[in-house]
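Appendix C: a fully annotated inverse folding record. The material below is reproduced so that readers can follow the format used throughout the book. The structure is listed first as tokens, followed by the designed sequence.
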């Protein structure tokens, strides 16, 4: 009985989503904190995660995956499911390791590394793929941190932000293009002089910038203290917070999707939220979608036999659905689309609070009624349908904030008047 209950729970894709984020991803966090994952490993792990999400099994074919994996890995605000992008997460955790190298001065590992390489450029006698990846991530780390100068030994003169809001390379690009050793530390430049790190002949613009930089350096005084790094992504104790960093990197990589994501802030059960997510992506298994996949030979709606069974027709314009919305006082335009469900005109007898949740409740029951008729030969007239909606409206009241639980009473009253 316990096993049967567990298997029934796994049928809920939102439960599988939680297990992916908590279990499958958690198994790799320790490894990704220290090592870069090879692309082949990421590909195989993504294959398992994708299969488990859509089927609950270890393998799945392409027809089982209703939404492209790149879209699934987008954040919920961008129309995805928020499954972690392992490549980006790996980058964030390695940046956290870099941050520890520059800030955790009492760590045995940090002390050992500092004895073998220059922190300003990560050049030294430590080689291998691991260190090559960290060197590749150094420009990104320098872009998200700023330095309060001490002795200047761990700060890159050109790439780090140690004076003002920009790095020297960004502020003086012409002079930087004439630099022979662009990885020198602030200490090396100030003690040895900047001119010795430049080519012999400078352009007019570079010569002018050199005067500005030398005037700036004349006011810099190094001390015996170590350089101190700070970051807007760091907590009060100095540790790097990878959640904000992940969101920044991911948003810069993922495309801007036109899919509405407001339903994630609504209050239906997770299963209904997943239904709404598929609905907004146009991936519900209606006959029009099945016809495109050549699974059925005809897209005619089995409920009314009057039009093709698209998502818009099934939830908004099918005679039964149109009658239902009219009974509730919601005026449905002829060109209304399911992707704009969260912007339906609200009737006066329903409160504005959690109206999106009420709309999803109605759409969920319209979808269930269609499946019941098609697959189980059920017969559900409008009064019975409204009664089922009313029962769920009462049950969903516990999902609303305590101060808004009375909203469900207005839903029930509206459904009762529509009977």
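Designed amino acids, in order:
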């Amino acid at each position: 009985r316990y096993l049967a209950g567990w298997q029934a729970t796994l049928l809920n894709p939102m439960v599988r989503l939680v297990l992916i984020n908590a279990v499958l991803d958690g198994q790799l966090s320790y490894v990704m904190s220290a090592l870069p994952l090879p692309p082949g490993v990421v590909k195989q792990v993504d294959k398992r995660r994708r299969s488990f999400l859509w089927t609950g099994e270890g393998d799945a074919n392409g027809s089982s995956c209703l939404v492209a994996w790149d879209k699934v890995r987008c954040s919920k605000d961008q129309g995805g499911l928020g499954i972690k992008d392992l490549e980006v997460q790996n980058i964030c955790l390695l940046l956290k390791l870099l941050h520890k190298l520059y800030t955790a001065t009492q760590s045995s590992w940090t002390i050992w590394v500092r004895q073998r390489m220059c922190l300003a450029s990560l050049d030294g006698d430590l080689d291998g793929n691991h260190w090559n990846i960290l060197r590749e991530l150094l420009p990104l780390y320098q872009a998200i941190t700023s330095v309060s100068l001490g002795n200047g030994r761990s700060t890159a003169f050109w790439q780090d932000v140690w004076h003002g809001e920009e790095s020297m390379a960004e502020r003086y690009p012409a002079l930087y293009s004439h630099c022979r050793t662009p990885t020198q530390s602030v200490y090396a430049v100030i003690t040895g002089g900047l001119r010795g790190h430049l080519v012999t002949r400078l352009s007019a613009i570079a010569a002018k910038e050199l005067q500005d930089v030398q005037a700036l350096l004349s006011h810099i005084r190094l001390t015996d203290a170590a350089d101190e790094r700070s970051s807007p992504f760091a907590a009060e104790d100095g540790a790097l917070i990878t959640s904000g960093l992940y969101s920044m990197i991911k948003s810069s990589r993922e495309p801007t999707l036109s899919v509405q994501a407001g339903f994630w802030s609504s209050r239906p059960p997770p299963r209904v939220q997943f239904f709404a997510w598929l609905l907004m992506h146009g991936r519900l298994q209606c006959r029009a979608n099945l016809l495109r996949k050549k699974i059925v030979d005809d897209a005619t709606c089995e409920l009314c036999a009057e039009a093709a069974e698209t998502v818009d027709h099934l939830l908004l314009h099918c005679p039964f659905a149109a009658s239902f919305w009219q009974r509730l006082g919601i005026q449905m335009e002829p060109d209304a689309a399911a992707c704009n469900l969260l912007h339906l005109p609200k009737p006066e007898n329903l409160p504005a609070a959690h109206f999106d949740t009420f709309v999803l409740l109605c759409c969920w029951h319209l979808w269930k009624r269609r499946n019941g008729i098609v697959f189980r030969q059920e017969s559900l007239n409008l009064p019975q349908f409204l009664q089922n909606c009313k029962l769920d409206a009462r049950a969903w009241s516990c999902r609303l904030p305590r101060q808004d639980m009375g909203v469900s009473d207005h839903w029930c009253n509206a459904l009762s008047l529509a009977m």
